[in-house]
Amino acid sequence: MSRMNFIKDGFWFGEQLASSLDKDGITRSELAQRWVTSDLEDDRRSFSRDVFRNIRQSAEELFGCNFICNKQTNRWKVEGNDTDEERFVRKVQALKEFMRLLHL
Question: Does the pTM exceed 0.85?
Fold first, then answer.
């Protein structure tokens, strides 16, 4: 995977998760639905388990945090407390602004 795809995939995951924290995270099926409408899906990358795992790992590396799945709700969220979530959201916002400035 190219470095730019790594960043775009991780950023996409981060954006989806950050926008869903008010609902206590996001499910893999919700992510799959959003993936289909994103510009990241193509003929070579449907939202398989492997693609999901790679995207999640990209986001963990990009944002320096871990994501966990609540087995009762099947919702993915940031591991840690409210401060960790706030730090994650700020990182997503900063990267979004940086990418906007670069016109990416």
Answer: yes
